[in-house]
Amino acid sequence: MKTVIGVRFRQAGRIYYFDPGKEDFVRGQKVIVSTLKGTEMGTVILPNTEMEEEKLKNPVKKIIRVATQSDEETEKNNREKEIEAFDICKTKISRHGLKMKLIAAEYTFDRNKLLFYFTADGRVDFRELVKDLAGVFRTRIELRQIGVRDETKICGGMGICGRVLCCHSYLSEFAPVSIKMAKEQSLSLNPGKISGVCGRLMCCLKNEEEAYEELNSHLPDVGENVKTPEGLSGEVISVGVLKQRVKVVVDVGNDDKEIREYDVSEIRFKKRGRKKSASDEDDREVKKLEEMDKKEGNSRLDD
Questions:
Q1: What does the pLDDT average to over 50-78?
Q2: Which long-range contacts (CB under 8 A, 24 or more apart) does 14-22 make?
Q3: Averaged pLDDT of the chain
Q4: Which pLDDT tens digit goes with each residue over 78-114?
C-alpha cells in the first residue's frame, strides 16, 4: 500500500496521483506538481489515502510544494494571457489559410509551454504556424488535435435535460456508449434524439444501463406468446419496463380478442436474454454514430 493524494488540473478532468510525503492535505487545497506537460498547479480532490501500488499505472511523483498566494496570482495571470494567446493564434490560423477550428489555449504554470487545442476534419500541416507562434510567444508551442467530444468538454453548454453537460461538470472520462443502451431503454433510435451537443451518442445513456438491463431481463419480448393467469394464450403488444407491467392481446373465444394488462409476475413465458431489433434504416443511421465514437477513442485532453 502507498499513501497518495488525487489531484485534478481542470474542471471534470482526470485525477492524477502524487506522493504527499509527510504532509497531510485536504480537499480543495492547491498544490504545485511536476507533470508530463511541465510544472502545473492543481487542486487536491482526494486527500491522503492508502492505495494498492498495482492500481497506480505510472510512477508516483512527489508534490513540489503547497501553492502560495503568489502562485495563485501567477495562475490567474496565466489564464488572462491565454485569452490573448487564443486571439493571436486564431488570427495566425486565418492568415495561413488552415482549415482548423481553434478551441482553447493553455499555458503551463511555469509558462515553459503553450498548448493550443483544435479540431479539424483531417490532418493539418501546421509546421509553419508553429514557427510563427514560437516567434511571437518565445516559448515551446504545441498544437493538439482533439475530437468533438473533447471540444464540448472544454466549451461546455446545456444538455437537452436543461442541466450543464455531464462531460463539462463532472464526467472525468468518456465511458463507452453503444446503441444497445438506447434500445434497452426503449428510446427512439432517431440519431437526432439520442445524440448529445457534440453530435455523438449521449454519455448519459450509460447512467441507467444496468438498471434497465436488470428490469428487462424479467420481461418478455414484444410479439412473444405468453400464458395469462386465466389460462389463455396471448401475444405481448407492449411492456412497461419501470412498472413491470405487460399488455397482452388474448383470444376470448368467438373470434373476439381483448387487450389485457398484467403484472409480469402473473404471466408465464420463456425467460431469456432480450433481443430487441431496430429497423434496417435506424440501424444504418445509428451505426454511423457508433463508428465515429470508436474512432475518437480515448480523450487526448489530459495526456
A1: 89
A2: 14/172, 14/173, 14/302, 15/45, 15/46, 15/172, 16/42, 17/51, 17/56, 17/60, 18/60, 18/61, 18/62, 18/63, 19/60, 19/61, 19/62, 19/63, 20/48, 20/63, 21/62, 21/63
A3: 87
A4: 999 999 999 999 999 999 999 999 999 999 999 999 9
Pairing of strands 15-19, 61-62: parallel
Measure the N-to-C terminal CA separation of the chain; round to a whole number of Å: 26
Specify burial of residue 174 (Cβ count, 10 A radius: 0-12, 13-18, 19+): buried
| Inter-residue contact 250 to 257 (CB < 8 Å) | yes
The Cα 32–Cα 73 span in angstroms is 13
**Residue 136 to residues 102, 161, 296, Cα–Cα distance (Å):** 17, 43, 32
211/226 Cα distance (integer angstroms): 24
Q: Write the CB contacts of 167 (distance below 8 Å, at least 6 apart in sequence).
A: 12, 149, 152, 153, 174, 203
Cβ contact 247:235 at 8 Å: no
- Cβ(298)–Cβ(253) under 8 Å? no
DSSP 75: H
Beta carbons within 8 Å of 154's beta carbon, 6+ residues apart: 103, 104, 117, 146, 168, 301
One-letter amino acid for residue 164 of the chain:
V
Q: Which three cell numbers stand for residue 139?
A: 516559448
Record the pTM: 0.76
Dig out the grid coordinates for 132 from the structure.
510563427
Give the CB-side neighbour count of residue 278, counting CA atoms within 13 A.
21
Planar angle of CA 92, 94, 99, nearest 5 degrees? 115
Q: At what angle do helices 69-96 and 127-137 cross, to 10 degrees?
A: 140
